[in-house]
Design goal:
The complex is a heterodimer of chains A (218) and B (277). By secondary structure, chain A is α/β, with parallel strands linked by helices. Chain A contains 7 helices and 6 strands; from the N terminus they run αααβαβαββααββ. Helices cover 41% and strands 12% of the residues of chain A. In chain A, strands 3-4-5-6 form a 4-stranded mixed beta sheet, covered by helices on one side. A two-stranded parallel ribbon of chain A has the order 1-2. The chains are: A alpha/beta (218), B mainly alpha (277). Chain B: Keywords: Cell inner membrane, Cell membrane, Ion transport, Membrane, Transmembrane, Transmembrane helix, Transport.
Amino acid sequence: MFQNYSLLPWLSTLKNVTFGVAARHPEWSRAQVVEHSTKYLAMVGLEGDVIHRKPSQLSGGMRQRVSIARAFANHPKLLLLDEPFGALDALTRGTIQDELLKIWGGTEQTVFMITHDIDEAILLADRILLMTNGPFARVAESVEITIPRPRSRTEIVEHPNYYAIRNHLVQFLGRRSKELAGQQTGTDTNRPETVRIDRTDPTDDPEDLRPALRAVNS
Amino acid sequence: MQGLSLNARAAIMSVLLLVVGLTIWELAIPAQQAAGELTEYERLTGGGAPRAGVPPPSQVIAKAWEELSNPFYDAGPNDKGIGIQIGYSISRVLTGYALAALIAIPLGFLIGMSPVAYKALNPFIQVLRPISPLAWMPLALFIIQDSEASAIFVIFICSIWPMLLNTAFGVAGVRKDWVNVARTHELGSLRTAFTVILPAAAPTIVTGMRISIGIAWLVIVAAEMLVGGTGIGYYVWNEWNNLDLTSVIFSILMIGVVGMLLDAMFGLLATRVTYVE
């Protein structure tokens, strides 16, 4: 799934989805393909008349939903989303993030998403991989998001871990990604450090200056 | 006037222009001299055949009415209805055109897919393209030894270039995003060609086809004047030899009407394959 939707403009919304589904399941009947595709379009809130419109007749947000439906309807082993919401305004982005969480909740698909929006990453992810600056950019840290699901954008900011994680990420992006840049290897195996920040964990020592950081598996 | 729609106003203006144009034409032609003033010589030659001159529109309209009310009569090789003549021309055009499309579109597809092929074939295309199709005629007549097939060959050679170039150009210009969509959905190359590249390039390809059919219709008239026998081009030339300018003007108009209809057909096809990004 790409930043600029990449829908085929000469096909209707529904056909944009069936196109991929039919390619993936050549043994399915036409009706099966259509039913499967309509189901996924409904999951992102596109139902009824809208699915017969051409992409040019849809708003940016709706196009990206079609793109999401098309990606999920195909059941890939790993879904790679490359900054999918970059081109959307903040409000639309919020709704579509919710749609993405909903459809993901229904399929439990492995999703690998690239983003530079920290709040988006915390809201959506189980794990955030942080990259250093170039040259020799590498994945330096793997931060676990210790906020239970289901998450909602208004509730997670109340969670004690939210700002701890967020601050850690901001610090990394602001300072350490530069400090680490240019180092060819972090450790021998080049494995990213796993970071787990959990303010609700009673074993954490509250007196520690950096209590939230606990390197595991380093 | 203001209350009418744009189309209605334009239609009124078209009719007005037509009437004014025809009136000027009609008035510009001097009336035939009355039969009473025949000279001795003219009486001897049987009342005098009217001198050849550009006919007024009233005569052309009368001729058109006469021809169009019975377009398919066949009274020997030199006297066939206008419908039959046009039919011959259209069948030649469509045969040559279809052969050209059959070669130009797949070949253009391959050229468009491969930048190397595009660069390698480009010099040949650029040299062959500007050659007047009629320049091929002697060579075609010598090699094919058949005037009918030569006319078709001339149509073939003139309609192949716009289709070839536009197909190659359209295919080469397909957005990489769309090809990537096909790749992420693991479509085979043949399927990608038919379900992604062909519809993406279709508007450009149809534009090429539209240009080609226009050129083919231009060329068939000239080719038939050379080849003779049948067809609207032959008809024009034959009527010129008969000094029947009324028929010449009438057939010129018919060539225009048929050309317009052919173009409209492809215009319709173009609206079907166009998409908004």
